[in-house]
Specification:
single chain; about 190 residues; mainly alpha; about 80% helix
């Protein structure tokens, strides 16, 4: 029981911290407006570790690689802590297990990114109908616009309704299915 409670706490706090780092990375990468409560919250929450990491990990082409690397390291720590709490070791081939754990953490980040995109698309679509002038709309638009634009160029509106959010959600679900298969393959390889 104590192990389950500890695992829940680790998954909650490390998972939310990885989410915060990943959101900060995406908001900076997609040039979302910085004058919004979410950006301020993410900066305040993650500055203590991102600013020192930037001294060692430089940015590249406008990407904040230190934030992305910290999200990946957080996922690795979460996976290692989960294996340790379950009483599983890395096995006889430690090198291969470490590589697989790194890949599994990368898969987790991709999965988390898809969930971020899906939630942002749903919230943006609902707000566009209910409250199109909401203060959150500029941030949401900057997050989802690059993905929606791909389908908006190819699929015309039907009855003045933009169907691109639906297509983005379908593609995200298909990618999540592929990622679930990759994740189960990696977990079985590590175990």
């Amino acid at each position: 029981m104590f192990g389950q409670a500890l695992q829940f706490l680790l998954e909650t706090f490390l998972g939310l911290f990885a989410l915060a780092l990943l959101l900060r990375f995406f908001l900076q990468w997609l040039r979302a407006p910085v004058r919004n409560p979410l950006s301020s919250f993410l900066v305040a929450l993650t500055d203590w570790i991102v600013l020192p990491a930037r001294r060692f990990v430089p940015g590249l082409w406008g990407l904040d690689l230190s934030t992305l690397l910290l999200a990946w390291v957080t996922e690795i720590a979460l996976i290692l802590a989960t294996y340790w709490l379950k009483g599983s070791g890395l096995g006889p081939a430690v090198g291969a297990s470490v590589v697989l754990i790194g890949l599994l953490a990368l898969v987790q980040l991709v999965k988390l990114s898809l969930w971020i995109l899906m939630i942002a698309v749903i919230v943006q679509a609902v707000l566009s109908w209910v409250s199109p002038f909401s203060p959150a709309m500029p941030m949401l638009n900057s997050l989802v616009r690059p993905f929606l634009r791909v389908f908006q160029k190819r699929v015309p509106p039907v009855g003045n309704v933009d169907l691109s959010p639906l297509f983005v959600l379908v593609v995200c679900q298909l990618l999540l299915m592929v990622i679930a298969w990759l994740e189960s393959a990696a977990v079985h390889a590590v175990a």
